[in-house]
Amino acid sequence: MWLVRPWLGGVAMVALVVIWLGALAWSVQLRRSGMYDGLGEAAATVRLNGIALWCYLQSAEQWRERVRELRASGAPAEQSLAARSALANRLRAAWLVAAGDEQHALALEYLRRAVRAAPERVDLRCLLIRARADAAEDVDPKMEFLRLAYRHDAACALWMLGEIFWQDGQPEAAEAYLRRAVARKPELAGAHLLLAEIERADGNRKAALEHAVQAQAHARSLDERLKAAEEVTGSGGGALSREQIIGEYLWGRYGWGAVSVVALVLFVAHPALIALCRRRRQRSSAAIAS
């Protein structure tokens, strides 16, 4: 027999799914929003964008209900802000999924909803300004970021201004804004990357290497990691190869999924493998006996 009995394979897969869902439920303490978040993240990882989007929106709805409950009960402002921020985070996640699926109009609407949910979040307002500019809407990103920078001294706005001034051929202004951005928020890998580029263009390889190393330490996305490694190498430092970086990123993102698939394939096909080994052993024994 070449395959495991269908009922046995089905029971095993159902058991694995139940165990995984139970572990997920335990990790989020049986909160429905947490369950939706976990399922959405898993779906987004394997590019099931429709399912991921639905899960994030369901989680957002749970937080919206929580916000209404807090308002009705007259809860402290801190609790309301935390709930609204959580709601905005779910809408931001929906924006990322929709944007990755090239549903740009829908993605922009989710980001607008996130800003409306938590207008205090300057990071979301920075994202919305950039998204509106990318969508060719009637917006002046330089003026909008200047307002945020001078009203809130927001690191994201300072970083964006650095990019704008660098693209406009004003490296001194760009450097000033970027330095202020990393002083406010040292983990801004993108700002460190641009500073490394400016310093290298100015011939200061030592300073460029310092910023490139900082960018490498704080890089999150694959693109940031690759650019940081390129800047480190270009500034005279040592970094992992492009293939190693991609391999580490893929393993970190899809490693457990790949191991699970391999385990499932081995479980289903192990009778065939055992039969193949037995036939080879029999052939070897027959060859020796003859």
Report on this structure.
By secondary structure, the chain is mostly helical. Helix content is 82%, strand content 0%. It has helices spanning 6-27, 32-45, 49-73, 77-100, 104-117, 122-134, 141-152, 155-167, 171-184, 189-201, 205-218, 222-234, 242-289. The longest helix has 48 residues, at 242-289. It is flat and about 90 Å long.
**Main pleated sheet:** none
Give the count of helical stretches.
13
Give the fraction of residues assigned to helices.
Answer: over 70%
C-alpha termini separation = 29 Å
Q: Average pLDDT across residues?
A: 84
How many β-strand stretches? 0
* Strand/helix succession: HHHHHHHHHHHHH
- Summing up helix and strand content along with how strands pair, one would put the structural category as mainly alpha
User: Globular, elongated, flat, extended or rod-shaped: what is the shape?
Assistant: flat
Low-confidence stretches: none
| Radius of gyration, whole Å | 26 Å
Q: Beta-strand percentage?
A: under 5%
